[in-house]
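Look over what follows to help learners.
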Amino acid sequence: MSNEDMARRIQVYLKKIEKIRVKRIKREKFKHLLKTLGLSAGRK
């Protein structure tokens, strides 16, 4: 395997990791938002 192939493979891998990380962060933010909304709705 050449260096270029290796570099390309690593790039694809990093992109995948980034996508997964972004998804996870968005889900956490969404959960937090729901929790906050739930609390404010429960207080009234």
